[in-house]
Specification:
The chain is built from no helices and eight strands. By secondary structure, it is mainly beta.
Length: 73
């Protein structure tokens, strides 16, 4: 199975996991919202792409995050 979704440290991610951001991220199309490093993102959903996950954050719904910017919490 080559389509395993992993975080920046190589830990395998699954639906419902919580992740922490490792970098400040500006969210495009959100009116200038920036997600700060260390933000906890709960209850992620895997997509068909092993490099991306979907998540809901306090200010942004339906956000797609690159797995290179998250680590398993």
């Amino acid at each position: 199975m080559s389509d395993v979704t992993k975080d920046t440290n190589g830990n395998i991610l699954a639906d419902g996991d919580s992740v922490t951001l490792i970098k400040d991220l500006k969210v495009k199309g959100s009116g200038g919202v920036t997600l700060k490093r260390g933000t906890l993102v709960k209850n992620i959903r895997l997509t068909g792409d092993p490099d991306e996950i979907e998540a809901n954050v306090e200010k942004v719904r339906g956000l797609v995050l690159r797995t290179e910017f998250v680590k398993k919490a």
